[in-house]
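Submission sheet (multi-component)
Chains listed below:
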Amino acid sequence: MATTHPPHAEHEQGPAAMRYWVVWVLLLVGTFLTFGLSRVHLPSPFHLLVALAIASGKSMLVVLFFMHLWDHPGANRLVFATSIFFIALLVGLVVMDNATRYDLLNPARGATLQMEPPGPDLLTPRGPPEPSRRLDTPGVEEGTGPSR
Amino acid sequence: MSQSLDTTPPSSADEPAYNPRNYLNAEAGAMSWLLTRDHKRIGIMYLVLTSVSFFLGGFFALLVRIELLTPGPTIMNAMTYNRMFTLHGVVMIFLFMIPAIPGIFGNFFLPLMIGARDVAFPKLNLLSVYLYLIGAVIALYGMIHGGADTGWTFYTPYSTTTVTKVVPILLGAFVLGFSSIVTGLNFIVTIHTLRAPGLIWMRLPLFAWSIYATSIIQILATPVLGITLLMVAVEHAFGFGIFDPARGGDPILFQHMFWFYSHPAVYIMVLPAMAVISEVVCASARKNIFGYKAVAFSSLGIAFVGFFTWGHHLFTSGQSTLDAGIFGILSMFVGIFTAIKVFNWTATLYKGAVVFTTWFAYFCGFLFFLVFGGMTGIALATVSLDVHWQDTYFVVAHFHFIMVGGVIMAWLAALHYWWPKMFGKMYPERWGIVGAMTIIFGFNATFIPQFLLGNYGMPRRYYSYPERFWPLNVASTAGASLLGFGFLLIAVYLLWSLKWGKVASANPWHSRGFEWDTLSPPPVENFLSDPIYTHPPHDYTEVPSGAAEVKHAT
Amino acid sequence: MRPEPEAATAAYVAHHFPDLRTQEHAARLGMWLFLATELLLFGGLFTAYSVYRYLYPATFAEASQHLSVAAGTINTIVLITSSLTVALAHHYAHHGKGRRAALLLLVTLGFAVVFLLIKAWEWSHDFHEGLLPGRYFHSTELTANGAPMFFTLYFLLTGLHGLHVVIGMTVLAVLMVLCWLGTYDHGYSTPVELGGMYWHLVDLVWIFLYPLLYLI
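Outcome: structure written.
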């Protein structure tokens, strides 16, 4: 089977296998690079930006060469690019909301959380926690909250 | 003739030719329907399923309206009332509004309009029907066991802590989302790859452009709803606490993620309606569309801009003012694209030769209600105004104007316009007009009082209300009863026409839509020979005259 | 236009497609659209992650220390290599070498199993330390506010990813058997390409999960 001419041999041979090995090496380099840079403790926000940049680079290699987007222009590229754009839109506007909100409306931070032990079984519906267990409601009377 | 097809419609002087070998009788037996891959049969299955869901959702609506006949308890207690409006929303939105027009008319007519023999993935098409059924059954299970009382919006932290059966409904909606995704995927690939020779993008019927835009939204938005509902279900069952403030979670995060889908979802509902209207307006005015490119690209514009606006549902929830401002302004942009369409449709009618049919009556209703409802939407997009109207009946009236006054009118228009093509029978025109008038009048009587109620301050989802709101509530319920009666009337005469209706010719409206160039009902293979398109769609520059030859299949 | 090997591939063309090339293009476009939905599905979880990392930056960093960076790094290398083998598998299938393709798919499945085993080890390690999602979190070392949230997101993200690994394995296993039987040796290897694309998506998601969960 390997020595006979397959019927489709005349047309596009397709990419040579070598490019996949090259991409693999580059991906490994990227992995070690991101690991190494994380040990260097860059100041924030650079450690996140660098990590995301390297991850994006690795992803582009996978998308372009392993998934053949380099060879197939047109609608497929538009589909991929559009989905990335909309993920960025979702993440961006939502984080911007938390970032620019009146800060007391953000979930409580800084206080030590009093943990509740796991419930008696998996499916016991939980009511809201009792008022005394709430983190930032000082002076709430006992017995006014709903019972568990 | 303007198209080189082997089947050309006869003029009205000829005897109507009911195509004897069509997709309905090509194969017999239940299995031939349950395992069909014919897009036309799948469209009919969607018609049956979504119509049943529509009447179920309408039933819940009537119960809600009956309860609101008196300020205090009328026929149910508060907990039941919460369940009723939740189920009304869930059934109407997920089981009817989202799947109906794409599922019925998109499936049936998209391949016919582009000269294809089927959609790109016929087996996936059948899968979408089964996913719909499975999702509906799961949700129905939840409904039978008491249903949820959270509202169809499932806001946390109530939805994660309520004792009602919210998880089956969440899972049902999750599965229904996959049905929606599969449909959208199919349509996009169909339009990209199965257009007949000569059908370049700028010759696509406007129905196809809007369905294409709808499908883009279905692909991009529905997964976010899926993961959000899954997170709520997981939190409800296992206490994971992603949205629980007591565990450091943010309930507003749920609202962000939920509305990221649910606002584009309303464009999934409205774009197919606009698709139908674009078809219907040309056929009724017997004129080419005014501004083909504007109407085509405005569909894409609505799909795109619709994704930037979700935060207007969070104006009073604790969102930042910066985000509120951004979302408010972006929400207004959608109005621009809608206005482009409205102006172009109206300009198409100008100096047209309109015949007042039932579906034209629905077109008139659509135009009026879309503009009126849309303008109240722009008003609601203004943060300073929404602070007063949020969670009142003003919002309820606004979205019902668009959904019922817009989408359902378009659905009824599509049903009547394409009934002869789908079934080869005409509906009774006089009863059609009566039905249309009943619907339009009943609709006004139901929802205009609700605008007033909302403006006077009556909150939505409230089981009881102060006595000063009593008269308007009674008026609204009276209107709803008339509306319900209208739908029943339509169902009766449409079903009657299947057996006893007048036989329809291949093109009773003499429309130049591409789908009319085949027989009524269409044969299984859609066309008797491969179609080639040489002229633009909705092209009325050549008037068909005289008797035309019809080549019948063997 | 390239010469169409009509006789060899005509059997693969469905009745509603004009030719094989259009059908293959449609299949790829359909797969990209489906992958777009998967990206958006994970995008929702990434949104939740972004919000809570923004709100609890120090706690997330501290909680991340309790994950095994070695396991994460090895898993990354494992998945990247499995992407290589699956790309090679499609390459050989496309050139009519079905058996070689099947062997490469077997290697891919092997890597996938290794990935899942390491993941299972990580999860059981976390269970022992009390680092569980939501209300089951009971660690004595990590007491800050965002700590249980980190682990809730960790389990949701890696859980959903793991589910996709299992689905991908099932698809690749079926393709492996069909490749071995020579089904794709006659000019039609699109299913292998599509299965490979799904696997590359699984790798893609992990490429982002690795730095976001392990390397904060």
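Remark: Chain C has a mean pLDDT of 92.
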